[in-house]
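It is worth pausing here to work through a concrete case rather than discussing structure prediction in the abstract. The textbook approach is simple: state the sequence, then state the predicted structure, then interpret. We follow exactly that order.
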Amino acid sequence: MSEITSGAGSVVPGWRPSATLAALQELVDVAQTVPAAVARQAGISTTELHSLRHLMNRPMGPVELARHLGVTSAAASGVVDRLVSHGHAERRPHPQDGRRTAVVITDSGRAEVLAQLQPMFASLAALDAGLDETERATIEAYLRGATQAMRRLL
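Step two, the predicted structure:
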């Protein structure tokens, strides 16, 4: 990360190695490894973990879940089958359309996700609580700017 170059080999304008850029890169690298580690500890696949995370927000049909996961509806159906077999999700009739199915996270599924992620959330909350409002505003602006820079690639 000492030097970022463009395809032509010239240094990207304005890029200077810094401790903040190195720390951001380290955060991005570690964040990419978290889902696989958490899923492994929970005894489920990464896709199943991502499914549970989506289902914690609200029930959804298998096709909608497939869209969120970026997989085929057949693959999402297999994921739902495995979550049901673990007791982490249930298929229920859709509340507005009885012909469709809604996938609902169970208490077991919610507890599994929270048990795995709670230590990280507690550490992050403690870290945040140690900031004053000026520090929090500065860090928020930096992180939102970094997020926007990454979103431009999407």
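Step three, interpretation. The domain at 34-151 is CATH 1.10.10.10 (Arc Repressor Mutant, subunit A). The chain has one domain: 34-151.
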